[in-house]
Amino acid sequence: MIVKTTEIAKEENKIMSEEEKSMMEVGVHLGHQTSKLHPRMNKYVVGIRNTVHILDLEATKQYLAAALDFVSETIKNGGTVLFVGTKLPFQKLVQGMADQCGMPYVKGRWLGGTFTNFGVIKKRIDYFKDLKKQKESGAFEKYTKKEQLLKEKEVMDLESKFGGLVSLEKIPEAVFICDLIKDEACFKEARIKGVKVVALVDTNVDPLLVGYPIPANDDALSAVKYILEKVKDAIVGAKSST
């Protein structure tokens, strides 16, 4: 249940900013059930509604601003931000946002070694790019029909694994993770390789694990879209200023 802005504002006796109102309208403030609260997220919680914790949108606004500043500076310095969102409802959204700002993405299963064994992953990406060029140039026509089908099947399989990584020439400077629990493998590799992490932290997540945490609902498509739009705009803005 989305709690109306007026109800929260009245109970907390404060005036909410337009940004906070916008976040509330899309459900950014809705956390998990109280039984799933991580102790370190307690300071970001302002109340409970029907056994669901309500996040402090003032804190969300501040942490989001800090994360966007970091993303903007990363892009201005020539860095790359990898978008990661493998939850099925978010896959098209993640791909669309990444494409709009010209960044790589992972929307399917995280491939182990993407960061920690990047050399091997890069060879597979290059192989996929070469195979795709062969298909587009008509080079497959020299094979038998059966061989062509096998080649095309291989292209489709590689596309699902590496399609979002074709622009990645090196390990990215930063990664944006939509769900830290779902994509824990990505997070662990990022820590090992020193990749800065920007991530949504819902009420069931330890915020201290992340360099740039954004207290927010990581389940609702509308909430995740709101945050991703902000990140996309920060990247586009940074690119246009360089």
Textual characterization of the structure:
With 242 residues, this protein is an alpha/beta fold. It folds into 3 domains: 5-58, no CATH class; 68-119 and 165-240, Rossmann fold; 122-163, no CATH class. It has helices at residues 5-12, 18-25, 57-76, 91-101, 118-137, 145-162, 184-193, 221-240; strands at residues 30-33, 45-49, 52-55, 81-84, 105-106, 174-177, 196-201, 212-215. The strands form 2 sheets. Strands 5-4-6-7-8 form a 5-stranded parallel sheet, with helices on both faces. Helix 2 (18-25) packs across helix 3, helix 3 (57-76) runs parallel beside helix 8 (221-240) and helix 4 runs parallel beside helix 8. It is elongated, with a radius of gyration of 20 Å.
Q: Key terms for this structure?
A:
242 residues; alpha/beta; Rossmann fold; 3 domains; five-stranded parallel β-sheet; 8 helices; 48% helix; elongated; disordered N terminus
Short structural summary:
The chain has helices at residues 5-12, 18-25, 57-76, 91-101, 118-137, 145-162, 184-193, 221-240; strands spanning 30-33, 45-49, 52-55, 81-84, 105-106, 174-177, 196-201, 212-215. The protein has 242 residues and is an alpha/beta fold. The radius of gyration is 20 Å and the shape is elongated.
